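Good morning,

Attaching, inline, the backbone tokens for the sequence recovery test we're adding to the shared suite. The designed sequence is right after.
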């Protein structure tokens, strides 16, 4: 599990997690006024501007591609949020979120203490964590809490290395548009019961909500921190390889569009992709560049240019529909003869609940434009499939991943023969350490098999993959 700050396009999913946990575990213990006040506090239009200006910082805990928990702290050092999904409580998420806020307070905010308003039932748990009461229990409006604090020695800990989050960080214009999109989505949410009964928080709009005895339970003991602060996420976890002295260049192209003629549907696209420039064979170069652009634009085509019935029905069924797609890329392997590019894709496909994270890749021979697929390079026999499933389980930490598919179904999905109507989209890419093979998942809304993964790939180094290789010339391209 790793913790990092929440990017702007992840704020809305983070708030959904917060409300999910609060509604389940906290709201039943609170007065109606307190619940309404918390609803108002976490509304996107209320909290997003404060995050953008740096007044509040959100942290997220991820296990693989799944967001497990969320915390938030303001620039005065008051912890405002700490919520962990039920299945991840007492498994390290809250502990790491607290550590991230502690380090952030000392290294970035440069303050000497962090504070929290704790429910009386959580006071003992917070005492174990080093928090100390600063006053007896207090009642302010509908809230009852104990003020607590923890002292920090600024500069005591070594600076925390910055994580690279290029997989999900967009340029300034993207972030501005993402804000507008998600605001439109929250207008839709206004029509739902979850965000009814506006109520202003009784003082300073700040509040620390949650059953801390539940959320902090996994933070006890001597294993205060397990040193995973340098973990990378998404595409940043892929170690790239680039040959020196190349005779051509890789340049960046983009497709940026926010149609202003859409009166009922909010539409926004920010798609970035590479372009090869300088190959001797211009015909091959043109084919390669078309392949790269088509791959980057795949979701835009599917949800907007040529939408299927499912997308159209979803849009027509929403009061405030949203169609949006953000794509970033990374060149993971590059030589005179071979180019591998991965594209990570964040999309809203009709509304803010139809939110997907996917990965695509293109493996291209730069001499003749050949595009390689898994079935071209791997002998998809039983031995490989069994080894592959072990790798997927190890990489995801989920023994049930792909358990809904039989061995033959996994083979057919990897070969592209049967992806179950696009639910299991096969991907492979090469990087500095070998090749990775996996799936990008796109489950239907009510699919019980959906475990929350965007994409998962199993890594194979040179020795591990050798016995499963076909005699395809692809393997001669790797250094």
């Amino acid at each position: 599990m790793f913790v990092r700050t929440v990017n702007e396009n992840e704020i809305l999913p983070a708030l959904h997690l917060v409300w999910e946990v609060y509604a389940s575990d906290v709201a039943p213990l609170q007065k109606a006024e307190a619940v309404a006040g918390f609803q108002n506090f976490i509304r996107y239009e209320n909290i997003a501007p404060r995050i953008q200006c740096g007044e509040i910082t959100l942290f997220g805990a991820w296990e693989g591609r799944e967001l497990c928990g969320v915390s938030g702290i303001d620039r005065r050092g008051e912890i405002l949020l700490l919520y962990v999904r039920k299945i991840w409580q007492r498994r390290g998420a809250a502990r790491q979120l607290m550590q991230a806020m502690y380090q952030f307070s000392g290294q970035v905010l440069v303050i000497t203490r962090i504070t929290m308003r704790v429910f009386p039932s959580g006071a003992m748990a917070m005492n174990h964590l080093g928090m100390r009461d600063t006053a007896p229990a207090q009642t302010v409006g509908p809230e009852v809490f104990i003020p607590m604090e923890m002292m920090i020695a600024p500069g005591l800990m070594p600076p925390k290395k910055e994580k690279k989050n290029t997989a999900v960080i967009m340029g300034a214009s993207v972030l501005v548009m993402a804000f507008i999109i998600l605001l439109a989505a929250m207008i839709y949410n206004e029509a739902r019961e979850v965000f009814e009964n506006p109520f202003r928080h009784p003082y300073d709009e700040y509040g620390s909500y949650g059953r801390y005895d539940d959320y902090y339970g996994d933070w006890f003991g001597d294993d205060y921190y397990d040193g995973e602060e340098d973990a990378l996420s998404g595409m940043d976890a892929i170690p790239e390889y680039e040959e020196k002295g190349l005779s051509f260049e890789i340049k960046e192209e983009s497709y940026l569009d926010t149609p202003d003629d859409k009166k009922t549907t909010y539409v926004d696209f920010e798609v970035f992709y590479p372009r090869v420039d300088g190959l001797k064979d211009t015909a091959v170069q043109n084919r390669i560049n078309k392949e790269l652009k088509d791959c980057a634009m795949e979701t835009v085509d599917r949800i907007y240019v040529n939408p299927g019935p499912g997308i159209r029905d979803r849009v027509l069924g929403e009061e405030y529909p949203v169609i949006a797609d953000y794509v970033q890329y990374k060149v993971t392997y590059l030589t005179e003869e071979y180019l591998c590019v991965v594209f990570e894709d964040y999309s809203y496909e009709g509304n803010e609940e139809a939110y997907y994270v996917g990965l695509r890749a293109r493996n291209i021979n730069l001499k003749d434009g050949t595009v390689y697929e898994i079935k071209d390079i791997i002998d998809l026999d039983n031995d490989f499939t069994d080894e592959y499933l072990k790798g997927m389980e190890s990489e995801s930490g989920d023994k049930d991943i792909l358990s809904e598919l039989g061995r033959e179904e996994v083979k057919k999905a990897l070969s592209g023969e049967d992806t179950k109507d696009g639910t299991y989209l096969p991907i492979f890419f090469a990087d500095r350490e070998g090749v990775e093979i996996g799936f990008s998942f796109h489950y239907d809304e009510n699919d019980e098999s959906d475990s929350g993964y965007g994409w998962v790939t199993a890594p194979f180094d040179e020795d591990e993959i050798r016995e499963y290789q076909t005699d395809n010339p692809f393997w001669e391209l790797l250094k």
